[in-house]
Records
---
Amino acid sequence: MRTFSCVCGQTLFFDNVACETCGREVGWCPSCHAIGALESLGDGNYRCANTGCGAIVVKCTNYAFEHVCNRCLPAPPAHGGRCDACRFNRTIPDLSVPGNRERWAELEAAKRRLLYTLDFLKLPYGSADEGFEPPLAFDFKADTIPAEGLWRWMGAGERVYTGHADGKITINIREADSVEREKRRVDMGEAHRTLVGHFRHEIGHYYWDLLVRGRCEDDFKRAFGDHENPSYGEALQRHYAEGPPADWRDRFVSAYATMHPWEDWAETFALYLDITSVLDTATSMGLIGAVDFGDLNAMVGHYRRLGLVLNELNREMGLIDVVPEVLHAAVVEKLRFVHGLVRRQAEGRQAA
């Protein structure tokens, strides 16, 4: 993730809605693909003040009225006034519940970072109207209403599971509650549990449907194993009954990845997005030199070296490791399969 600049010279960041120095409103411009100052033209129209742009835009309705977004879209607006990130929402939290607007804002911030990385990698995604099968969509739901700071679960029929099905990614908004998320992380023995991590994992399932299913399943089986035998249900039951194999760290990115080839793929895909995002940010911030994102070996090498430094810095502050994964050869080979699919998509779109 790169940084941006206000017309006053102040550095702007991806999530900013205002310049901390001059107070100007800022937002993501779909024309120059950057955060920039917005000059009001009246009637809800704005001009992007970024040098060489000047596009006429309007704020996303979730920016202008709900205050959970910071993106704009070209004037006159399409998609019901929703930006290129919010247009994929199918369900949002009940905003009459105290705290849900703040949780929704955190979910939207994580989703915007996800989509930024997908665009950076030139990965395809879209709606049914745009010819995508499956079409991408997001549901942000809650189990029950939190009372007095506690989450209540009244039965299996009311529980919302974070997951993916036929292009629709569902996130339980409990994951936007930092205390609840940390409890789950500790209970499940996870190195990380973050909102953006959930999005990266679930989008991996989306890309299995979009890029692997019916296209290169034999190659997938050679890299990740047979996803048809045992069935997902059988594998899930066995995983929670027996746990991961003792040597899982030598062959998998996480214990959960051992459950079934689909989960191994999703965890590996999420790691690939982690690597891409971290290296993009580190390059933009001047922490490392230029990275060849077409060379997986170079990417892994940079990520390993950067991880050592970042982990030690976090340990000095008593924080968890930034890079908890151990990238053994078997994990790198699975990353290579993901990398090959991603690069072919990027090259195909560039040629088109």
---
Amino acid sequence: MTAYEEIAEALESLSEGTVDLVRLALDRGEDPLRIIDEGIVAGMRTCGDKLAAYEYGVPELLVAGELAQECIKVVRPYLDPERAEAKATVVIATVQGDIHELGKNLVALLLELAGFAVVDLGVDVAPMAVIDKAEEMGAAVIALSSLMVTTMPAQQEVITYLRDTGKRQRFRVIVGGAPTSQAWADSIGADGWAADAQGAVALVETLCGSGEQI
């Protein structure tokens, strides 16, 4: 078993020794990016699969997320700034009126692990606050989470405000959350929808790698 596989397995098992394995791998001169991709990301992907298969619950996923974040902190100083340059910037938020953040936090973490610069605005964020921050940060993608049917219209408001201010073409807007669907995304003119965190990362990868002007 490689050092990367050991890290992935330890993270999948929610082992407190995962961070120590990352430090050991770095001390041995292992590739920091492979530690992230084949170790931390692979472990989180397996945890996500276990959640989907009902083998893990939300508490286990939270523990895995915290471990992954600690591992990233250890690896970050070893990354070559040129090699570690972010693919693109994503501004993510839970929409106005909604205070749920577990799903958003997981998407933000996986996006960061996948190499994106993530600006997390938190919960209950007003539409114009999202747009202003996306402009300020030069974001390529705006990701909007809604966990309640009553707050879904706030996702649409962001897109409407972008259109009204002539800024719609500057950003790709994706939506997600338990009550949302592809049909909802289509109806409000979003650029995409994802059913889960891993799907959101794949969607952002596709949008940012499409070759289209963003």
---
Amino acid sequence: MSPAQLGVLCFRRNVPGADEDEIAQVNGALVQRYGASGDGLVSSTRLRGVYAIRLCVMNHTSTENDVRKVLDWFVQAPLPAPAAEPQAAAAPVPASAPSQTDPIADGWLGPPQIEPERLAALAVFEGVPAGQLARIASWGRELRVPAGEAVVRRWQAARDFFVIVEGSATADRDGELLRELAAGDFFGEIAALDWGAGYGYARSATVTAATPLRLLALGPADLGLLMRDVPAVAKRIERARRERMGR
């Protein structure tokens, strides 16, 4: 995907007929599977806003044969099955039911701070079943920001992801207005999703409350759970990230 420079090569597995969201999902799963194999470790990056696998040769004993083994693995590995879209008829998960795989348990600090039905009215969560909305509410925390105060500043290293529940905000870079944000909009996905990926992005813009804000804040791990469990929301977030990275 780019010319090799020093010890760094960026590539990815082609998936004929797939869109960018599906290609990123498949390659991300392959990166995790390769790391779990114990044969080696690769990371990921974004080139012009699209997902790429990043191979960085650092061990002085590595040879051309070692590099070819990595590439061959990604050529030959069976493609993971795409995540299934949530079924409308699926039984809702009670907000109080702990997950067997999630860290600790849902809502372990108490009841959600933001009502699940309030989330249902936001565009980013359109079509998400009530049971999943209850889980999302239990993962996040409420944050209130007065008008005129910055929620995040450009170049900060913080990693939280934010959804505007009430109010409006502006995003700017060095004084240039990038966009206006309202209830249902979100920001912070670039830094949050790249957390722990072998590199990291600082905040790319400053977001300031234009009116008093009520926000749902999710940490990187909780955002990862959200995108794993609700593919429709994951696609909306990934689409926004590609667009914003392109700018």
---
Amino acid sequence: MASTAVPTTAVETRSIDWIGLVPYVALHLSVFTVIWVGWSWTAVGVAVALYLIRMFSVTAFYHRYFSHRTFKTTRWFQFIAAIMGNSCVQRGPLWWAAHHRHHHHHSDQRPDIHSPRQDGFFWSHMGWFMTIENSRTNERLIRDLTRFPELRFLDRFHVIVPAILGIGLYWLGVLLENVAPGLGTNGWQMFVWGFCISTVVLYHAVYTINSLAHRIGGRRYETGDDSRNNFFLALITLGEGWHNNHHYYMSSTRQGVKWWEVDITFYVLTVLSWVGITKELRAFPRG
């Protein structure tokens, strides 16, 4: 993906990529096909499982690892983490990390590309990535990542993993229809629930951290921006809702500071550290 300077004003980021929006809109519209494919506990269970796995992939890998480097891992697991992040259909790890680092450099200031203070709820929630300018990656912000050719490949061809996931879910449904008809599912039902519905719900849960987590909630720390802690958002995003804590000390693997601040992503990363997959998890400073 070509390198370009990060836009510094809202005016520069408003050239909507109408052609690029077609798959995004189609995915949202596909949710309504549930009227025809119906539902089954099997398909719903797969959708929930994929939501949780992919939410963890966004929060643990795209966010806490690639964007902030809050822990270390091996190169082979870094590649697996990037593949898991790709499955979330939120472009590649380099694109995601570059834009997120830019956000922290300018949080809620004029250059911030998704600030509700500057441009309103819709823009911060989803409008910002619909532009031609923001579809590019500023490689100056991710030089620590661009040295890995496998990450560059996944970033450039970020549609491969989602395509494999979607096709795989369809054929899983076909298989189950034939070998376990009592489960009541089929190819199209599994695709609609496991891929389409799960992905759309995942999208908007992740987006709330850019929009609602800068508008609704409490503030423990003075951070110079509008970041807030929100218990409900922390639940649906596996810990990302402790956003004020995160903006206060973005290098910490842990975002839920108090014992009652549920941070499932941190708990799982801790378990992975016990078996040597992750290591050197950065602690939140005392006080």
